[in-house]
Amino acid sequence: MAGPVSRTIQVGGERPYAVHVGPGVVERLAAHAGEEPGRQVLVVHQRGREELAEQAAQTLRGAGARPLLAAVPDAESAKTAAVLAGLWDTLGEAGFTRSDLVVGIGGGATTDLAGFVAATWLRGVEVVQLPTSLLAVVDAAVGGKTGINTAAGKNLVGAFHPPVEVLCDPAWLTGQARADYVSGLAEVIKCGFIADPVILDLVEADPAGAGDPLADPARTLELVARAVQVKADVVAADLTETSLREILNYGHTFGHAIEQVEDYRWRHGDAVAVGMVFVAELAHRVGLLPAGLLERHRRVLDAVGLPTAYLPGRWEQLRAAMARDKKSRGATLRFVALEGLASPTRLVAPAEEDLVAAYAAVSGAPGRLDRV
Ligand SMILES: NC(=O)c1ccc[n+]([C@@H]2O[C@H](COP(=O)([O-])OP(=O)(O)OC[C@H]3O[C@@H](n4cnc5c(N)ncnc54)[C@H](O)[C@@H]3O)[C@@H](O)[C@H]2O)c1
Ligand SMILES: O=C(O)C(=O)C[C@@H](O)[C@H](O)[C@H](O)COP(=O)(O)O
Ligand SMILES: [Zn+2]
Fold it and tell me: Where is each 3-dehydroquinate synthase C-terminal domain found (predicted)?
């Protein structure tokens, strides 16, 4: 598949911004150096992404800004109150003002943290996100959901704080371990189920290739752009998740519960993959989802190497974690479910026996439980 090497997706809403995906986009940071000489920039970067952080700092410095690098722990270890407080201290000591900037560099865990530090410092400074994982470019860095985890659960503290720009060079994604990249594919496939079935067709046409960003760079760009477009359309219409935005949470009620029960040793996308099968089972059981579409969930996720099953014997913990899902209202569990392809709806207060049956269906069958 030949095609353009760069794509720009506009995200609408009150404060519109662009997602630029293409070679050399880091240079665009120069435009954020500010009109006043010496704009301070906190470059929050995941450990391991030092080279890119230094490149970003050089670009900013060259344009007159004063970057300050802050390395944060890898993956979910970054999304803690302690790491966040450390960044607040850094901002305070450096005297960051409202005209200064935060840049986030890394996977979704880091962009969530960087976005939240920007959202909270002086009640909000600008943030530019440089996602370096597939999951972060198609999902975490776009849309302005920022936050950290607490002992009670995933992303329980956060804010809606959209970035002013998102920049991703596809070359960054090629550094990811395959299992991490494939985890990001779960969110891409999610977008296929909830809104853009062409994504599913593309993945199903070559599932092994879809899991390798270099197998067909044009297809990689197409999948990224399509998933970002789905997210952009949704968040432009409902930034603060009053209703429509909930569809982006497809598979996350059970998925976040797995992450919590596993103490974040499971990759987010892997957990969401099982979560999508769980809610597809549930929706099929209550008569919403046709059998063929349930089967398609397992087929496409399995084809790219994502897990479709979780361990048995953990229902009590999972059920308790699901009760703390943000879509819950009081004691009422609410799921995003499908009644057809690209036709999301809500499944409210399902019977406990149906929940247990859906759990049995995802914990009885063999699945990939060895990806931790
Ligand atoms: N805010 C949102 O809307 C949103 C959406 C989806 C997911 N999320 C959050 O995003 C996180 C998951 O994102 P993720 O999968 O990117 O996780 P992550 O940030 O933990 O990154 C996954 C792994 O990939 C590595 N990695 C990242 N970029 C790399 C690169 N260029 N080269 C080599 N390794 C690289 C990381 O070091 C890490 O080990 C979760 O915390 C999830 O809750 C947020
Ligand atoms: O952007 C959204 O809205 C999403 O729900 C996207 C999800 O993929 C993402 O994992 C998000 O962080 C989950 O949000 P939460 O509100 O359930 O914590
Ligand atoms: Zn997610």
Answer: 184-328
Q: What are the pLDDT digits (tens) for 134-185? A: 999 999 999 999 999 999 989 999 999 999 999 999 999 999 999 999 999 9
DSSP assignment of 140-155 equals: ITSS-EEEEEETTEEE
Q: Is 207 in the pocket of ligand 2 (CB under 6 A)?
A: no
Tell whether the model's pLDDT for residue 94 goes beyond 70: yes
Mutate to test the pocket of ligand 1, among 112, 168, 250 (most ligand atoms within 8 A of CB): 112
Q: First and final CA of the chain: distance in angstroms? A: 33
Q: Rounded distance, CA 9 to CA 155, Å?
A: 26
pLDDT at residue 371, rounded to an integer? 46
Model pTM score: 0.97
User: Does the beta carbon of 155 sit less than 6 angstroms from any atom of ligand 2?
Assistant: yes
CATH 1.20.1090.10 positions along the chain are 250-364
The one-letter amino acid code at 289 reads L
Domain with CATH 3.40.50.1970 in the chain: 7-173
CATH architecture classification, 250-364: Up-down Bundle (1.20)
Nearest atom of ligand 2 to the alpha carbon of 142:
1
Whether residue 74 is annotated as binding a ligand: the answer is yes
Q: 7-173 has which CATH code?
A: 3.40.50.1970
Task: Return the bridge partners of 168, or none.
Answer: 21
